[in-house]
Amino acid sequence: MKKVFKNTAKFDENAVNLGIKEIILQENAASFVANLIRQKIPLGSKILFICGGGNNGADGFACARMLQGDYKCEMFLNKKISSNLAQTQLDLARRIGVKTIARLDLNEVSCVVDAIFGSGLSRNLDTMTIEILEEANKFNGLKIAVDMPSGLDLDGNLRPICFKADYTIAMGALKLALFSDLAKDFVGEIVVADLGLSHCMFANKNEDFVLELEDLKLPKRDLQNVSKGDFGHAFVAVGDMSGAAQMTAIAALNMGAGRVSVVGENFPELDMQIMLKNDFSGADAVAFGMGLGGKELVFADLYDKKTVVDADMFYKQEILEFARNPNSILTPHPKEFANLMKIANLEPNLDANLVQQNRFELARKFTQNFPCVLVLKGSNTIIAQNGVLYINPLGSNKLSVGGSGDVLSGVILAYLAQNYEPLDAAINGVLAHSKTALNYNDNAYSFTPQDIIKGLKCL
User: Fold this and answer.
1) CA distance linking residue 73 with residue 97, whole number of Å
2) Longest dimension (CA), the chain
């Protein structure tokens, strides 16, 4: 689990206040980029640096100077020089022979380095920059973004396009914008450059986190003298569309729940291990909402239980009772979340697109107002509680298939039934769900919810 920050400008300021000159931070940044290029590109190759006029451009100028001689480095200036450090670095690069070109030329280039804008972009790109990025994105060689791909703003939105990097080298610390759903196809592999300060120097009371596979904790069965009752009784409510409840129940069974029961009349006999019940008495945790349709539940029977709430429930007023319960986990996709925010009177004019453009702050706002755990599904699913975000960057397009969310609910339900804390259940459930797709080696388009369930056995 790594810390991630919306804006790291304050950290650079703190470093300067400690006596570390800004040019030293730039030298460390440029050195990190240069070392990556040395690892990936043969000596003697041509490297093109597309540079802005500010400090991001200065990083590019410094890197070009470091590589010149071992490589054929060229600099294309997209903007007029606007900082003293940029002018200093440009002069130094020119002094040792780095060539400045007047027009963008990708002929015989092996690597393009984007050093136009860093993490401070807050406006739409001008026409010239858009044209440059469109041309650069057609390039088939290695593409590296310095700090953030140019065109990506602090909220992770495109302004209106973005450099498409193979590697993004985040300077000093991870930036939240790099993990938006909209950024996922543009950032490539994200690497953090050490600027000469330990990451522990980037402390913050309100820090968020990016999850890693190493954070996944699978259910443990260390003791031998146990029974099924030691691993929880998970219940699933069956709605009008019983297939959704089937997948949720089977997933819970395969993720370690000791017993799984369903409550509903139209559930076909599927597995002798899944029991049919008339009510929710005896449940350690309950999942409902998936495939609910017009089916009515006695919600009062569920208010005091640990719950995983999904799908059709986000169109019912009763959802707020579960949002007020810290033992509830709500798992909406963006359209459902937009409706949830309306019911909660937090954002009356949302739609799915607006949710995607403001995922981080909306997830934060909702969980600052309600104590439940939120799982906002997406390419980079967000788990949130009490205004703190835990972002899963391991999502895959393989999971973009009907029923995937039903299986996720079952996986989280199993953790909850086995007495994991709701936040831990959500984090581990999301990571386990993602890892099944990462482990799948056949065609991405052939992945099904049944493959997720099979994959749970192999974690």
Assistant:
1) 9
2) 82
Place of tokens 């056949």: 442
Q: Which two tokens stand for residue 381?
A: 């699913």
Strand-pair category, 382-385 with 167-171: unpaired
Rounded CA separation 335/233 (Å): 31
- The answer to whether residue 20 scores a pLDDT higher than 90 is no
DSSP calls for 358-379:
THHHHHHHHHHH--SEEEE-ST
Q: Is the peptide bond before 393 cis (omega within 30 degrees of 0)?
A: no
| Residue 383 exposed, middle or buried by CB count within 10 Å (0-12, 13-18, 19+) | buried
10 Å Cβ neighbour count for 122? 9
CA distance 108 to 48: 10
Q: Write out pLDDT tens, residues 322-361.
A: 999 999 999 999 999 999 999 999 999 999 999 999 999 9
Say how many C-beta atoms besides its own lie within 10 A of residue 324's C-beta: 13
In degrees and rounded to multiples of 5, residue 395 shows phi and psi of -65, 150
Measured CA to CA, the distance from residue 162 to residue 165 in angstroms comes to 9
- 228 pLDDT higher than 70: yes
CB atoms near residue 272 (< 10 Å): 6
By residue count, the chain amounts to: 459
State how far the Cα of 320 lies from the Cα of 313, in Å rounded to an integer. Answer: 10
Beta bridge partners of 376: 382
Q: pTM above 0.90? A: yes
Cβ-based neighbours of 106, under 8 Å, separated by 6 or more: 48, 112, 135, 136, 139
Could you tell me the pLDDT band of residue 7, with boundaries at 50, 70 and 90?
confident
**Segment (H or E) for 320:** helix 319-323
How confident is the model over 81-131, as pLDDT tens digits?
999 999 999 999 999 999 999 999 999 999 999 999 988 788 999 999 999
- 169 close to 36: Cβ distance less than 8 angstroms: yes
Whether omega for the bond prior to residue 449 falls within 30 degrees of 0, making it cis, is: no
Q: Of 31, 34, 322, give the one whose Cα is nearest residue 195.
A: 31
